[in-house]
Specification:
This protein has 383 residues and is mainly β. The protein folds into two domains: 1-36; 70-381, Glycosyl hydrolase domain, family 43 (Tachylectin-2, Chain A, 5 Propeller), CATH 2.115.10.20. The chain contains three helices and 20 strands. It has helices at 2-36, 70-75, 373-381, and strands spanning 89-96, 104-108, 115-116, 138-144, 150-155, 163-168, 178-180, 193-200, 205-212, 232-238, 248-251, 257-264, 274-280, 290-296, 303-308, 316-323, 326-333, 338-344, 351-352, 363-371. A hairpin with a 5-residue loop joins β4 (138-144) and β5 (150-155).
Length: 383
């Protein structure tokens, strides 16, 4: 009897010990996974009308949106050292919330994982555009000139006829901010939004392109936008940001349009060298709110509309990278508060890669530019 009792006790103890060990192993595995901060899966939105007519392969439909963990990933990296996986890196310059908080940076070496710099603190705050509480630094667009100077324009106010401007040699120290009165001459102008800065290598000049609503213009599409906005694209050019050409209508795609992004295609993927990504801002009778691509033979067109390229609607703020032989198009899925992206090797067929992205959680639209290792090292050393 005593032997049977001892055997029973040993069996119970062994079973209990096995359960405890299994539990410890499980906890250890969870901790390892958390410390590794695996890249989250970010699901693409669904259209508000329940359809996706973009022709893009949507690889993550019905998948659940998970919290972006790029801040936690960056905490595991020594901020005082450059940790590049390749010879190049990219800097994402963006705004947060409504645009009152200023200019923020994130960096990436692969175009997928974007890590915030300076612990998410702003590098620059808006100093122009009316009363302090009304000032914006929204939708920043940055372009580097032939002399190495970085020039930046941004939306400075909700109902301003001017846009903000500043320049920098190192992306750290910025010039005094000022307003460029690009639509002050135009009566009935309601706004100047989402300016795009593009440098034309052939013409040796900068193009500034933006969206404005001018009362009484384009009556055929009145009432199609939110808040009765009826945007078209306008532009001016400059060689020194001191003198500017007369503002002109840039493009009228015969519908509400904002968020221009102009790229020179040097790859030969299409016969027209200039790529214009833009947002169809139509709200009524049926919302569009998606991104399209048009191509042209010059920086001013004429442009031929190709097709919708975003994997879903209710998006804004296109940014483009050329990585290897692929085009990466990024955008702010603002309705779902995360970033999305598609990829193409021919500008015709686009694949949704949103689930592979990791952006700072509070990031909104901005500009992606290539930077050198030394510049990135200095930026990441800042406190």
């Amino acid at each position: 009897m005593r032997a049977k009792s001892s055997f029973r006790s040993a069996f119970i103890f062994s079973t209990f010990l096995g359960v405890v060990c299994a539990y410890v192993v499980l906890i250890f595995a969870v901790c390892i996974n958390e410390n590794n901060n695996e890249m989250p899966t970010l699901a693409g939105d669904q259209s508000n009308n329940g359809s996706n007519k973009t022709g893009v392969k949507d690889s993550d439909k019905k998948s659940e949106y998970k919290e972006n963990k790029s801040e936690k990933i960056s905490e595991n990296i020594d901020a005082g050292k450059s940790v590049l996986l390749s010879d190049r890196a990219w800097l994402f310059v963006y705004y947060t919330s409504k645009g009152h908080d200023g200019l923020f940076y994130a960096w990436s070496s692969d175009g997928l994982l974007w890590q915030q710099i300076r612990d998410g603190k702003p590098f620059l705050r808006p100093e122009v555009g009316g009363e302090v509480k009304e000032r914006l630094m929204r939708a920043p667009s940055i372009c580097r000139g032939m002399d190495g100077t970085y020039h930046m324009v941004w939306t400075a106010g909700w109902e301003s006829k001017s846009i903000g401007y500043a320049s920098s040699k190192d992306m750290i120290n910025w010039s005094k901010q000022r307003l460029l009165p690009v639509m002050e001459h135009e009566k009935g102008t309601r706004n100047t939004w989402d300016p795009e800065l593009f440098y034309d290598d052939n013409g040796k000049r900068f193009y500034i392109i933006w969206a404005s609503t001018v009362a009484g213009s384009f009556k055929e599409t009145e009432g199609t936008g939110e808040g009765n906005f009826n945007h078209r694209l306008y532009y001016t050019t400059t060689v020194d940001f001191a003198e500017f050409t007369q503002t002109k209508l840039y493009w009228n795609p015969e519908h509400n349009v904002i968020d221009p992004l102009l790229i020179e295609d040097k790859s030969g993927d299409v016969s027209e060298r200039y790529l214009l990504f833009y947002k169809d801002e139509t709200f009524k009778p049926n919302p569009k709110k998606n991104l399209l691509l048009a191509t042209g033979a010059s920086p001013t067109g004429p442009f031929n509309i190709r097709k919708v390229v975003s994997h879903t609607d209710w998006v804004q703020g296109p940014s483009v990278l050329r990585i290897g032989g692929d085009w990466y198009l990024y955008y702010d899925c603002y309705a779902k508060r995360h970033f999305g992206a598609v990829k193409s090797n021919d500008l015709n067929n686009w694949t949704n890669i949103t689930e592979k992205l990791c952006f700072p959680t509070k990031a909104r639209q901005g500009t992606i530019i290539e930077i050198d290792k030394e510049t990135l090292k200095k930026l990441r050393e800042l406190k």
